[in-house]
Amino acid sequence: MKNIVANDFLILQPGQLISVSADAALTMQIDCGRVWVTIEGVNADYWLFDGDTLALIAGRHVVIEAVKVFSRIDFLPSLQFADRLCMPMPVASSDIEALAGY
């Protein structure tokens, strides 16, 4: 598992999966691409696209997968985008296969 800190970024190839956690709350922003995210203790998965943001809770195990395209993910201090932070709609795990073909 990779420990993420503010101002880190990840570049994932299509289909690449990574497991991360952070010691402090962060904002995850999708710079480009499409990713699937699951967070420890949350009963939903998230599909994020270019420009989407997601608040990450400190100490939670997070799994991120680039879906079909190259993806860059930026990790920002948690308050940097507070004025436009949005939580994407959770996706039921039964719908994941259908969305993967999108």
Separation, N- and C-terminal Cα atoms:
29 Å
Number of spatially distinct domains: 1
Helix content: under 10%
CATH fourth-tier homologous superfamily: Jelly Rolls
What shape does the CA trace take?
globular
CATH class: Mainly Beta
How many β-strands, per DSSP?
10
Helix and strand succession? EEEEEEEEEEH
Tell me the strand order in the biggest sheet. Answer: 1-3-8-5-6-10
Mean pLDDT: 85
Radius of gyration: 13 Å
Structural class: mainly beta
CATH architecture: Sandwich
CATH fold field value: Jelly Rolls
Short structural summary:
This protein has 1 helix and 10 strands.
Question: Your description of this structure?
Answer:
The protein is mainly beta and 102 residues long. It has one domain: Sandwich (Jelly Rolls). The protein has one helix spanning 96-100; strands at 2-4, 9-12, 17-22, 26-32, 34-39, 45-49, 53-56, 62-66, 71-77, 90-91. Strand 5 and strand 6 (45-49) form a beta hairpin.
